[in-house]
Design goal:
Length: 142
C-alpha cells in the first residue's frame, strides 16, 4: 500500500510495498511520490546528501550539520583528493597560472571542442610514463 501525502513516510516506510506498488503507477505519479518522500525527509532534517561543505576539499572538511545547523569536522571519503594535493600551495599556484593562461576550461567535450595544449602535454607525459616505467606483476602466485 502506498502512503498518502498526509501520511508520514519518514516513520517506518514500507519500501517493499512502495517499490512493488510503484511499478503499477504512471511515471509522473512515481516521481511525485519520490518528491514527497524527499521533501518530508528534508523538512524533518533527516536527509544527509548534498551536505554543505564550508572548507576547502581535503581529507577532513568542515560540514554544516543539518541537525544542529552548526559546523563540524568530518572525514571526507568521497573526494578524489586522496593524496591531499588539492590545497597544496604549489598545486594552487599552478592552477592559478593555468586558469590565467587557458581560462576555466573549454566548456564541452574534447571530441567536439578540442582540448588545451596543457591537456595534450599531460596526455603525452602520462603515455611516456606508462611506456617507460617498470610494470609490477599483479598476478597472485602460490
Amino acid at each position: 500500500m502506498l502512503p498518502s501525502k498526509s501520511q508520514s513516510i519518514t516513520k517506518n516506510p514500507d519500501f517493499h510495498a512502495i517499490l512493488n506498488n510503484g511499478k503499477k503507477l504512471h511515471l509522473t505519479q512515481r516521481v511525485d511520490m519520490f518528491n514527497c518522500f524527499i521533501s518530508e525527509l528534508t523538512s524533518h532534517k533527516q536527509i544527509f546528501y548534498k551536505r554543505i561543505i564550508l572548507s576547502p576539499a581535503d581529507r577532513e572538511v568542515i560540514v554544516l550539520d543539518p541537525l544542529t545547523d552548526k559546523p563540524k569536522p568530518m572525514l571526507m571519503f568521497g573526494s578524489n583528493n586522496y593524496l591531499g594535493l588539492a590545497n597544496h600551495p604549489y598545486v594552487k599556484e599552478k592552477v592559478k597560472t593555468a586558469i590565467h593562461k587557458y581560462g576555466a576550461g573549454i566548456g564541452g567535450p574534447p571530441l567536439l571542442n578540442g582540448y588545451t595544449k596543457m591537456h595534450h602535454e599531460l596526455e603525452e607525459r602520462l603515455y611516456y610514463v606508462e611506456k617507460n616505467c617498470p610494470k609490477l606483476d599483479h598476478e597472485y602466485k602460490d
